[in-house]
Structures are given as C-alpha cells and as structure tokens.
Design goal:
four-stranded mixed β-sheet; about 120 residues; about 45% strand; about 5% helix; four-stranded antiparallel β-sheet; 1 helix; mainly beta; Immunoglobulin-like; single chain
Length: about 120
C-alpha cells in the first residue's frame, strides 16, 4: 500500500473533507514538494501518496492546512489562529511496509500515530 494519510475533524466528529495537504521529501533542513492535494469526502487522498514500488526509505513531511479548513467550515478562529498549519515530519525505514499517517485535529489540538 505504501504511504497514506487520513484526517478526522474531532471538533465536528467527521472526516476533514476538503482540507489541503502538501507532501514533501526532506533532507536536513531542505524540503522538496512532491505533491499538493485536497482530502476527499472520507478525509483521505484519492489513492496512496506513494505505492510500495515508488516509496523509498527516508524522511518526509506532511503539512495540513488546518486553519483554512476550519474557516471554510465556518469556525470563527482568532487571528492569528492557535493552529494554522500542522506539520508532521516522519521517517520511512522499511519501504516494503505500509505507512499510514492519520491526523486527529481540532482548532486547538492535534494527535497522530503510525496507523495500519
């Protein structure tokens, strides 16, 4: 399966449909944009971010556009918002395995883990 992500909006109790996300490869302080996408109705990308044939060991970054998403949902956020973009840096050690990076998010908190 490669690399995938899923975002749940814990404020509304629903998938974060319409949230913008960017995927980068990283090397030290340098980040290279791989792709930008918008989450579908299930809060997921339309297909894997990388399949196992193209996933490589290394370091990666996902940037979730949290404030823009909640504003689009009509949430009145302070300026500046507590969370604007949530950035997750993570490593892939075994490219033959599935790496699922879920995000649970509200305007005030977030949590992640390596999912299945």
């Amino acid at each position: 399966m490669g690399l995938s992500t899923h975002v749940l909006d814990t404020m509304h109790g629903s998938p974060a449909a319409g949230m913008g996300v960017s995927l980068f490869t990283t090397q030290g302080d340098n980040a290279t944009l791989v792709r930008r996408f918008v989450l579908n109705a299930d809060g997921r990308s339309d297909g894997p971010l990388y399949d196992n044939n193209n996933l490589r060991p290394g370091t990666y970054r996902l940037v979730f556009e949290v404030a823009d998403y909640f504003r689009a949902r009509g949430v009145d956020l302070p300026q500046p918002p507590f969370l604007d973009k949530v950035t997750l840096d993570f490593g892939i050690a075994h490219a033959d395995q599935h790496y699922h990076v879920p995000l649970l998010v509200s305007p005030w908190s977030h949590s992640t883990y390596r999912g299945s």
